[in-house]
Amino acid sequence: MLGLKLATDPRWVNIVESNIEEILTDHAWCEQKAASNAISLVTYNSELEELVTEMLVIAREELEHLQMVHDLIKKRGLTLGRERKDHYVNELFKFMKKDGSRKDALCDRLLFSAMIEARSCERFKVLSENIKDEELAKFYRDLMISEAGHYTTFLGFARKYTDNIDIDKRWKEWIEFEGSIITNYGKSETVHG
Known about the structure:
mainly alpha, Ferritin, about 70% helix, tRNA 2-(methylsulfanyl)-N(6)-isopentenyladenosine(37) hydroxylase activity, tRNA-Hydrxlase_MiaE, tRNA 2-methylthio-N6-isopentenyl adenosine(37) hydroxylase MiaE, Ferritin-like_SF, Ferritin-like
């Protein structure tokens, strides 16, 4: 369904299990950034009522996920660490087209968002199927389903709002680019790392 070029090696979970506090902290900040992204889409596209309505739903869900991760951190006696840079997302951001019309920029921003959600969904699936901690396995399975919904929402809006972009062609370019950079990741206890 996601069409990603490269699957995450399940051995990545061994790295994650070596530092649960780090993956949970990183995950919490990923949820905060996802909520901020949805709010930014509202801010810059306030005239698109359907998009605004759905982005507000996604922002709320992402904040709920942040709360859930924070609750897990507290329950386990861990500490929410400082925000981390997400080098994977920063590389994807550089691939985003910034020229053309506002609508062209919106479509690429939506594809950028869909790409992040697709990889997050895939990583959560790997976690849910391979982590020994049963509570975290169920937690990540539930979140995987939510991420898949966000992925399809962003992709659907990119198709809806395009005027002159072949979205399927551009999405394939995103998939190819992501496939070329993901080989540098999967080596640390972070969601995208």
